[in-house]
Amino acid sequence: MSPRWESNPDIRRGRTVIHTLHAHLVFTPRYRRGPFTDEILRRCEEVMRAVCTDFEAELVEFNGERDHVHLLVRYPPKVALSRLVGSLKGVSARRLRQEFPGHIRKYLWGEHFWSPSYFAASCGGAPLATVKEYIESQKRPD
């Protein structure tokens, strides 16, 4: 019987690591103002997809409303999630301000587009209870 990761397409292989890391991210614009239209959300997704590609990550899912966006990102272990988030927010803010200056200015003022905070949750794989049970079962017999 082969190991689980050999037949699972969600599990990635590197030279020295086998991994499947996913993060659910939520970003809100500064002051929780609602600058997003369907067109701006589409462009935001395109920009964020390109940033993920630069990090050898994948934007698996993207969606949003007028006042926030959700991302599901698969990323390699060599990527610090905080660096990826910084680039996602920085590049998208710069591009959206350049491409939609009049609209964005109506909702946001000053230099900042995104709120400095964000939500991040690890996701995917087995539930924590299952992982805990598995680790407990690996104890050496006394």
Question: Could you give a short description of this structure?
Answer:
By secondary structure, the chain is an alpha+beta fold. It is built from 4 helices and 6 strands. The protein has one domain (4-137): Alpha-Beta Plaits (2-Layer Sandwich), CATH 3.30.70.1290.
Beta-strand proportion? 15-25%
Task: Output the number of helix runs.
Answer: 4
Q: Within the largest sheet, what's the order of strands? A: 4-5-3-6
Helix content: 25-40%
Low-confidence stretches: none
**Helix/strand/pairing class, anyone?**
alpha+beta
Number of strands: 6
Topology, pairings included?
Layout: E1 12-13, E2 18-19, E3 22-27, H1 38-54, E4 58-65, E5 68-74, H2 81-99, H3 101-107, E6 119-123, H4 128-137
Antiparallel strand pairs: 1-2, 3-5, 3-6, 4-5
Helix pairs in contact: 1-2
Domain Transposase IS200-like: 18-138
Protein name: IS200/IS605 family transposase
Pfam family, one: Y1_Tnp
